Structure formats: structure tokens, C-alpha cells
Amino acid sequence: MSDIVVGLDLGTGGVRVIAVDLQGKIIAQETRSYPLLTPQPGWTEQNSEDWVEASLQALFDVTQQLDKHRAIALGLSGQMHGMVPLDAEGKAIRAAILWNDQRTGKAVAEIEATIPRQELIQRTGNPAITGFQLPKLLWLRTEEPQAYARLWQILLPKDYLGYVLTGESVTEPSDASGVGCLNLALQQWDTEILHDLNINPALFPPLIKSTAIAGRLKSEIAARVGLPVGLPVVAGGGDNAAAAIALGISSTNLNQGSLSIGTSGVIFVPCDRPIPDPEGRVHLFCHVDGGYHLLGVTLAAGGSLRWYRDTFAPQTSYTDLIDMAERSQPGARGVLFLPHLSGERSPYLDPDTRGALVNLSLAHTSADITRAILEGVAFSLRETLEVIGAIAPVHQLLATGGGARSHIWLQILANVLQTELIAPNAEEGAAYGAAILAMVGVGAYPNLEAALKIFSPDGNVVQPQANAVYETGFKRYKLLYDTLKAVR
User: Fold this and answer.
1) Structurally, how many domains does the chain consist of?
2) CATH classification of the domain holding 345
3) Vertex 15, ends 74 and 128: CA angle to 5°?
4) 158 and 283 share a domain?
5) Same domain, 193 and 254
6) Of 111, 112, 246, 459, which residue is the least packed, with the fewest Cβ within 10 Å?
7) Is 474 within a domain?
8) Of 221-230, 259-268, 359-368, minimum mean pLDDT range
9) Any idea which residues carry the catalytic annotation?
10) Residues 327, 324: Cα–Cα separation, whole Å
């Protein structure tokens, strides 16, 4: 029997479970989906029971493929910022409120009226943000007081699943730093903030290290999924931090970060000290290795290309659309695109800003417009990288996500960001990172640094090329946000 570990990532669209041997080879994997609930405009919820059922089924399906393999640990990862409110019996009081829920505007204002914005950023690394968990708790207190009166504890999504699996209620710093009340320097709940907001700190679970054992698999769960009774369940990490570990990105190598081009665009850069952007334009969170990381988000990256295709070229494949962009030229012959189709996170934190295509003329073609969209996303990410780079300079980004499969988009991104990009040959994601954390948690590797030496991925290197057209285009692009405010 050879040893394996199991990694589980509880995403927004579904759960992914993988079994990985101690050399990093994936032995088995399964995914299961669950519905997204939108009971009102701007609200996003999921039933935590759906998470549990899908996770147990996926775990069972994976264990059925583990002939001649023995599981020695289970590591967890998941969507950040969500809130699962539990009563004294450990039962969910209501549906979980998710990271992209926007109902908490008044709660954010209440937090900022109580705690000066600059103080909150200095202590927690971030301003009050609608998607974070803390404003959700204040919303519950105001809007559903009967539910709030029953409250015993609130848990983040992956930590709730860990509670179901083990009966132990804990969290770890990478996910907890997205709640909104974690003192980053101390990596403990900020009791002064909670006192000022009249919130009992006991509502939040104890903190342990990301590689610590959160608990052991309960017998009834083990019997259902086919894993050993008492299997160590390792705390793991929030999805962005776990995905970074899967790429080998840690705060022991401060020159390398990651760039994800999925529906959103995410820049992840590790740092060794909790130094936030003074204006809170990018997030500062704890990393799973005991360090920290800066995170900047463009909400509509691949989402901008999808919108353009679905709206104007529904019969065109993404491959053909990208090829079409090559028929234009750097600078898209003057067309500029502002990718604020879903509002914008970094560096504006403005849910009301909107996208735009400008400088259009009769001479422009669909190739110019398509290229402008690719370049507009790159310009947006450069705005974010400039904020991050002033705190933690980075010289290399590992590029992942669907957009990273396009050579032309990668080259545009490298040229605009003036940063070397590496497209990994294999992209395993947060479940893989959770598995690596589990290996360290049970001593298969002495520490995370030793494990990352084994699992460092190879990839295709894209070198930046200097282009004055992009420098000029970026200066023009930066004028758009303020200029277009008047026409919202």
C-alpha cells in the first residue's frame, strides 16, 4: 500500500476532490456541483447542506479509485469570505451568504463610521468591503435579529465543512484574514475592533496554523466516504493562497507571484511583512506559510472577452476571436477598452463604475475591438500591479487560467506589465495546494519549503518586450475612469 493525501477545494460552482501521492502525482479526482441561489438582486447564497452532500459524494467517488493506496491525510481549501451561521447545536441557521453578495452596503458604512478607515486598513490590511464576512454578520444582526439571537458561531465555507467532518470548529490565517477583523500583525482576532462594533469575539472560531491538524474524521463520515476513521484533517487555506502553493509560490521567494486570467483577473504577490496599501486599493491577507500576500483583482478579465463574444460574435469560437486580435496591431489602432463591466475591485473599489469602448471610428474593425479588449484587461491589471509593486516588487508571474492558454494574450500581458510570465505546463489549482498542505501537516515533508521544492512546476516562459505604443496607451487608459464618472 502506498500513501496518498486527499485535497478538497470547496468552490463557488462546485467541489473538487483529488488524491495525490507523495511525489505529487494525481491518482484520482472528482468534481460535484451545487446550485447558486439568488433570492434577491445582488444577493448570492448557497445551502451549506449542498456543500456537504456534494463533498461526501466526491470523496466517496475518489476513494473507490484508490486501489493499493492508503489515505494518510485530508487537506481543505475553499471560497473565501462566506458566512455560515450556526446555532448552539452546530446547525446552520440560514443559507450561507457568499463572497460576491452585495447586500451589506449599510453594514460597511456602519463599520467605517465606527472605526476610521485608515485604522481598519492598518490593523486588518483592508478597508471594510461588502463581500467580506464581518459586514455579513452586522447585516444579520440588523435584518434578521431572530437568527442573530440564536447565533453560536460563524464559520467560513471550508471551515464549516471541516466542522462537519471532524466536529472541531477552527480556522486558519489565510481564510480568516478575509473576514475583516483579523489583526494581521498578531494573526489573531482583533478584539478591540469587535468590542467597538459590539460583537462577541466568541462568535469566531479559534485560529490554528494552515498546516495544523484541525481534527480527525468522524466514524460516521469515514464509513460513508470510505476513508479511515480518525484520518487527520488539515486546516488548509483560502482558495487563492492554496492555489498559489500549488504553483510553488511562497513568502520565501519574494520575486515570484501569480497572475490568473479566468472570469476575473487576479494578481497574487507574496510578502514577508504585513504592509498594506495605505489607501486599501489592493488586499493584504495572510499566506498559508506564515507570511503574507497582496492580492489585486480585475473583476472582468476573461469575463470581458466572454461578454464581447456572447453579445457581438456568438457564433465565433474563442480561438478564432483571439486569432482575429492578431490581425490588428499593438495599441488596437487607438481603440481603448475599460473593462469595468461588473464594477471594479482594484484599485478603485467602486461597484458602480462601468465599462466603455472609446475612440471608435468607421475605420475600425472587429479585430481592433477584440485586441482593445485584451489590452484593456492588461492595462487594468497593470494599474493593480503598480500599486502592489510599490509595496512588494515582483519580477516574475506564473500565469494561469483560460486566458493564459492564449499566446497572444500572454505576450500582450507581458509587454504591458513589463514582467516575465511563465505559463505552467500543468495547472492543478487549490485542491492540489490543499493536498500539499496536508502532506506537511502529517509530517510527510518536514516543512512547506521542502515540499515546494518537490512540486515546483515547469512552464513556457514569455519575456516582456518594450513597446512605446503600450506606454502611451496606458497613460491614455488611466484617464478613462475619472473622465467617464460624469456620464454614469
Assistant:
1) 2
2) 3.30.420.40
3) 95
4) no
5) no
6) 112
7) yes
8) 259-268
9) 239
10) 5
Domain termination residue (choose one: 240, 274, 305): 240
pLDDT in tens, 62-103: 999 998 999 999 999 999 999 999 999 999 999 999 998 889
Give residues with Cβ within 8 angstroms of 271, minimum separation 6.
251, 254, 291, 292, 293, 294, 391, 392
Per residue in 421-474, pLDDT tens? 999 987 789 999 999 999 999 999 999 999 998 877 778 999 999 999 999 999
59: number of Cβ within 10 Å: 27
Contacting residues for 229 by C-beta, under 8 A, at least 6 apart: 217, 218, 219, 222, 223
139 with 213, same domain?
A: yes
Q: Do 59 and 223 form a contact (C-beta atoms < 8 A)?
A: no
Host domain of residue 472: 249-426+458-488
Do 184 and 276 fall into the same domain? no
* Residue with the three cell numbers 475600425: 364
